[in-house]
Amino acid sequence: MTATATLLISCPDQRGLVAKFANFIYANGGNIVHADQHTDFAVGLFLTRIEWQLEGFHLPRELISPAFNAIAQPLDAKWELHFSDTVPRIAIWVSRQDHCLLDLIWRQRASELAAEIPLIISNHPDLQIIANQFGIDYHYVPINNENKLEQEAKQLELLRQYNIDLVVLAKYMRILSFDFVSKFPQVINIHHSFLPAFVGANPYERAYQRGVKIIGATAHYVTADLDQGPIIEQEVVRISHRDDVADLIRKGKDLERMVLARAVRVHLQNRVLVYGDRTVVFE
Amino acid sequence: MTATATLLISCPDQRGLVAKFANFIYANGGNIVHADQHTDFAVGLFLTRIEWQLEGFHLPRELISPAFNAIAQPLDAKWELHFSDTVPRIAIWVSRQDHCLLDLIWRQRASELAAEIPLIISNHPDLQIIANQFGIDYHYVPINNENKLEQEAKQLELLRQYNIDLVVLAKYMRILSFDFVSKFPQVINIHHSFLPAFVGANPYERAYQRGVKIIGATAHYVTADLDQGPIIEQEVVRISHRDDVADLIRKGKDLERMVLARAVRVHLQNRVLVYGDRTVVFE
Amino acid sequence: MTATATLLISCPDQRGLVAKFANFIYANGGNIVHADQHTDFAVGLFLTRIEWQLEGFHLPRELISPAFNAIAQPLDAKWELHFSDTVPRIAIWVSRQDHCLLDLIWRQRASELAAEIPLIISNHPDLQIIANQFGIDYHYVPINNENKLEQEAKQLELLRQYNIDLVVLAKYMRILSFDFVSKFPQVINIHHSFLPAFVGANPYERAYQRGVKIIGATAHYVTADLDQGPIIEQEVVRISHRDDVADLIRKGKDLERMVLARAVRVHLQNRVLVYGDRTVVFE
Amino acid sequence: MTATATLLISCPDQRGLVAKFANFIYANGGNIVHADQHTDFAVGLFLTRIEWQLEGFHLPRELISPAFNAIAQPLDAKWELHFSDTVPRIAIWVSRQDHCLLDLIWRQRASELAAEIPLIISNHPDLQIIANQFGIDYHYVPINNENKLEQEAKQLELLRQYNIDLVVLAKYMRILSFDFVSKFPQVINIHHSFLPAFVGANPYERAYQRGVKIIGATAHYVTADLDQGPIIEQEVVRISHRDDVADLIRKGKDLERMVLARAVRVHLQNRVLVYGDRTVVFE
């Protein structure tokens, strides 16, 4: 598979958008391999993802952005351009639980996630051993209410130093400050409930208490509001009266692994377009 | 299939319960066709359902209760006794939407629900025509904040008059008063969300706004607290950015029909045991 | 919602297809409300669905086909053109079971299926009563191995007479002849198994015998090969050892209703593109 | 949790079975923590699982079997007795794919599988490195049509030597001989299709060719007939036209991991009772 370029575009709906964007690719000799669009009529927004092969495309990479900008600006479009051979760098943040971490590493090794994982950050030393096993740097940054600001500064410094594109909170279990999120907005979190049910702490315990018959997990982008960010993926599993809290936690682990991995995968493939509090996931 | 008797029992956990209950059936010549039990170790409660054939059972029906009581009382057990040939009578309460009503009638006609449906109550006249079609009495009891108490009295009188065992709120869309529920506690409601997400009004609109990837429906017993009663059944369906609110409502209709029908069915089969805010559904 | 036109196109993959098709719409003043495409790289085929508003479109309806043909022919494209305000006419074929029939009628009445249902054909007289109830013509065409050819001629004549666009086999339970299918190829069938498991008769019985833990239903276009046509939709439900054959049949009914309705709906919305033995369903 | 004993019993249905078995436990001072039963009326067979705490049970372990036999024999019952603190020993057999192997090891380490994994056998040397990483013995036993019998003898010898209770074929991709299975019948296999669809080789390729909309995986006990053994667990996942064979394989991996792990778990908990070609899984 040769390298591809992908445009993610959102702009006010109007006639001719598909034609204009497709013409831009075609006029420059590009071969579209994936194109999908969606119009949100409620807000009058057109959203599209176009992916084309760079082989045979006349424009050199560095000229694509300026050339496309000339089309996008009059349309008042917001857009991102990505190249498939630019491998994003992920920092995985963990606390004490290892299942999501191991799963992400396994999938990256199995080529399901096209990314590098050079960095693990944790507020606990426990999972250092896994980092060692896979040759990933592990930084133990203990955090509490008193030292939060300075420790977040340390974390941001690590992200810069390792040239990180995406932070994945793989059961990190702590809230990021508003300041952190505004400085580093590319963060995906896995919440162990079917949001918006059971926002916050101990969702499995609360799901058990409520006597629900199905539990879930939710992967979302992190915003300053706890568990309120745009949802990327959700999944559920059936439970019964036979399942106690420990069973919910065990069954939930499988959900968490699966949902987080799917969300990270579609993000890495530049299939997720955020607008307002919502996402379009172009499958 | 010959008639059966079913005991639903809950009592503090202790040694010998299975033996004692099984011996009661066996000593009287009964043949158990279904027995299931569950111990909730968190609260130390033993819950069981035993169903046996009445053919060959030595005790006449009217003596089963007093005989079993002699066993249950020393164990501090709560219990119910049901006979499979006693056909419960259902009142279906509706507002303007017909899908759950039609589905319940269809299933009753198809022998999926072992019950009679002699009565439909509605706060709107719209669905009278369906009642006529199937020969079911339809009572239009318009209700508002001013006349609620007297109209609920009228509703209770109808339930008595028609000898109703179970009220099914098939998209009734109004809240029953605390007083009503304490006078007639056997009420199943369908809520068009995956509880506890989106308690209250307009759940599909709110699910859309939140950008969830899965929607659900919940059937539960009605208590005085809105959408807080013990959950009997839940089901979900995947949605995408392509689904607007109208699509959620359409997809939700299928969920609502399915979930409500399943809940009513297991209730009618005496498979649901409520304790605290939870249910055990003995499948 | 104003009327729309929809093109379903498949053609050998090549550069510029998206641009060419979009330009055709745009150049004639059309506003695209849905566009989706898929490339099957294994066979080098480009498949697309484009829907645009007719309001403001400069070409009169009768000129769209010839105008588009001038674009399509050099590309060796196969295509269909549909207008959203042309309401297709469905004939539902049944045997003795009523659940799929009732469900389709109910959905049509609830505006979930944009079609007319003027005709029911059956090899049994049993469901005449339902046809009467809803004011649909019912033709009893008993069929056996001896009279098959002449009876199929009668059925074809009815389809012509009623101007039918689509036949839905809603548990018709008989095989159409090769001759019939070649004369009237627009036929959707519901098979009560998860194809290709349990092709042919008595799938629930055989699923029970095999001890599967999940059962399914499949909606597919009918071809001359039994249960081998292109699959439109499938769904499954979990079963357990507690479910006997009667339970499988009961649970299966819900699957059958749901799967058939979804398949008919996407077909009526011109979202299904068949190529080879496969379908693309543009959601 | 103190140690428990579990009886898995199947016997011809007759009056008093629940009472007899429960009395045996109660009379000896046992506290039942789980009891479930099922009657297969089609074949007149009663199947039950009873688990009770050994603490306070008067009979010493070595006398339970003879004592219970006195009850079971007149009833013509088949039965197994297991103790929860006897940790079964698993041999995992693999070929070249590591995902099921890694998943099983991870779950065993996470205490989801109460077993030891002292042995990995493979017909390829590739996964030796994983065995080393986790300190598990790895035996490379290359096998082909010529050397099958002698290599199976070697494999059987290894199972004896390592005192193995259960063989898990974690994508072993080769067929065991009738002779092997009769000598070592405790074997669980994961088949990468929704059986009975796509028995045999290349199920994902064939699922893609057939154009199914859902794929599945099946865990079953191995018998001499290929992919015909009693099914323990199945699961499915939805696919679309966008998924090519590589996507099916990727999505299937998650199914395979999940389904195999669940099947091994319920087997290890002595929750699976096989009769004929079927299983009862007591949840």
TrEMBL record, chains A, B, C, D:
GO molecular function: formyltetrahydrofolate deformylase activity
GO biological process: 'de novo' IMP biosynthetic process; one-carbon metabolic process
InterPro entries: ACT-like_dom_sf, ACT_dom, Formyl-FH4-Hydrolase_C, Formyl_transf_N, Formyl_transf_N_sf, PurU, PurU_ACT
Keyword terms: Hydrolase, One-carbon metabolism, Purine biosynthesis
Pathway connected to this protein: Purine metabolism; IMP biosynthesis via de novo pathway; formate from 10-formyl-5,6,7,8-tetrahydrofolate: step 1/1
Pfam family, one: Formyl_trans_N
Catalytic activity: (6R)-10-formyltetrahydrofolate + H2O = (6S)-5,6,7,8-tetrahydrofolate + formate + H(+)
Active site, UniProt feature: D227
Domain ACT: 6-93
Enzyme Commission designation: 3.5.1.10
Family, as annotated: Belongs to the PurU family.
Name of the protein: Formyltetrahydrofolate deformylase
